[in-house]
Specification:
- There is one protein chain.
- By secondary structure, the protein is of the alpha+beta class.
- It contains eleven helices and twelve strands.
- Helix 3 runs antiparallel to helix 9 (323-336).
- It is globular.
Length: 382
């Protein structure tokens, strides 16, 4: 396979800023839109951090602004201590507001409203991806391959398990299989552990155990990555142009499949079966943004959909500072039937911030290593 040249630094930076900017706007607009639906006052809607490049204030008093550092954003509600929606620890903070405005402060709203406002961010990321996939499936078609083994490679894990060409997969690793892409997805994130497959052969169901082997591969841009492999080849791929209903249904299936893959990968990292270096950080996202953009607008839009799912998934993790952390604290509040101690919430948010920053530094270090920066520095110094 011919290796394509990687795009230039400025092109990559521009593509990264575009991808992150679009997704941050979509995510934060989910929070903003739900808050406005409940009449909650929003002070600031920011895409990017740092000094404001451009901004304006709308008729509702919300400051819309673009920051110079495109690594995130936030929607800050009136009465919050900071952009992470932490309530102020000052007991007299609400007294600065009129009785009418006080009722519109985020932390004074019922628990169910606050929960919906927080959940709306990740939810709109998933809906955004579903919309992109659905449009793609109607405009370009949906590539689907039946879940049938077209060929079994001799000496492969599939052959060792007794699989034969023509076997039709029913389930794999406890997950239902509707197409060959499902098999590829499940096997790709496997770390070499046995997986159970149920196949149909000559009208009868047969259960076999496959132990994938781990292989290192190189993509068209020269990036190396590891994945599981069992030695199966698919049959002929078909392209189906779906109507609106089927397009939305398959878009939901694709989105859920991506979420399952992210969940499996995260669980493997947490349990030590996969190295943390396998997770991509900002540098990797920037690199793939540029590479996707160099392949054309459809490839870039498809990449945006995948990162949107990633953003929604990560934000649902129960880590303070993330939306999932807020929802976890709200769940505790619901069980206790009273708000948590502000000092406890502050400690939780600071701990979550420290964890996220540490993880970001580790991922960035590994990203820079994967692009060869440290090797080039060592060569230059030597």
């Amino acid at each position: 396979m011919e290796t394509l040249a990687s795009p230039g630094l400025l092109f990559t930076a521009a593509a990264f800023a575009l991808v992150i900017g679009v997704l941050v706007f979509v995510h934060e607009y989910g929070h903003y839109g739900m808050a406005r639906l409940f009449g909650i006052k929003v002070e600031t809607f920011a895409v990017g951090f740092g000094r404001e490049i451009i901004g304006w204030t709308d008729g509702n008093g919300t400051r819309w602004k673009l920051g110079w550092l495109p690594l995130g954003g936030y929607a800050k509600f009136a009465g919050d201590a900071n952009a992470a929606s932490m309530p102020s620890s000052d007991p007299d903070a609400d007294s600065r507001w009129s009785p009418e405005d006080r009722a519109n402060l985020f932390h004074n709203r019922p628990l169910w409203q606050r929960s919906l406002v927080v959940a709306a961010g990740p939810a709109i990321n998933f809906l955004f991806a579903i919309a992109i996939f659905a449009i793609f499936f109607m405009a370009y078609g949906h590539q689907i391959t039946p879940p049938v083994a077209g060929m079994v490679v001799e000496g492969s894990p599939a052959a060792a398990a007794g699989l034969k060409a023509g076997d039709s997969f029913v389930s794999l690793d406890g997950q239902q299989v509707a197409r060959f892409e499902d098999i590829s997805r499940i096997v790709a994130v496997n770390t070499g552990t046995p997986i159970e497959a149920v196949v149909e052969r000559d009208g009868a169901l047969k259960t076999v155990t496959i132990v994938p082997r781990i292989v290192t591969e190189v993509d068209r841009f020269g990036n190396t990555y590891q994945r599981g492999q069992v030695g199966l080849a698919s049959g002929e791929r078909v392209i189906v142009h779906h109507g609106p209903i089927d397009a939305i249904r398959w878009a939901g299936i694709e989105t859920w499949g991506a979420v399952r893959m992210m969940w499996d990968t995260t669980a493997q990292v947490v349990t030590g079966r996969r190295a943390i270096a396998d997770l991509g950080g900002p540098v990797k996202i920037a690199q793939f943004s540029g590479q996707s953009a160099s392949l054309g607008l459809p490839a870039l839009i498809a990449f945006i959909a995948l990162i949107s799912i990633n953003l929604g998934f990560i934000n649902l993790l129960p880590i303070p500072m993330l939306d999932g952390g807020h929802l976890f604290l709200y769940a505790l509040e619901g069980i206790r039937r009273r708000p948590l101690n502000p000092r406890l919430q502050e400690w939780a948010f600071m701990s979550g911030f420290a964890l996220l920053m540490s993880l970001m530094l580790v991922l960035t270090w590994h990203d820079l290593q994967s692009v060869g920066l440290w090797d080039r520095l060592a060569t230059a110094i030597g």
